[in-house]
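Fill in residues.
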């Protein structure tokens, strides 16, 4: 991805999904690539899947930041 070979990166990540279907970081990275390509619907889909897979707190914060750059702040109804 750092070389901006997004199509190649997505191809590898699609294959990786088959071997590690519950790895949230794979979906988060795919979301980031789709976001960079201005494919916001696909980005949100993959960020949502990543969040559903219960990533670490650090990864959750990173994913939410990526989402906020697309749609603005996320409002949640979490009870403390």
């Amino acid at each position: 991805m750092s070389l901006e070979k997004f199509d190649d990166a997505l191809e590898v990540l699609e294959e990786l999904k088959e071997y590690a279907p519950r790895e949230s970081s794979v979906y988060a990275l795919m979301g980031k690539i789709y976001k960079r390509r201005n494919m916001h619907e696909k980005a949100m889909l993959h960020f949502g899947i990543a969040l559903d897979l219960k990533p670490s707190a650090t990864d959750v914060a990173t994913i939410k930041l990526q989402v906020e750059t697309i749609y603005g702040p996320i409002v949640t109804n979490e009870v403390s």
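The mean pLDDT is 88.
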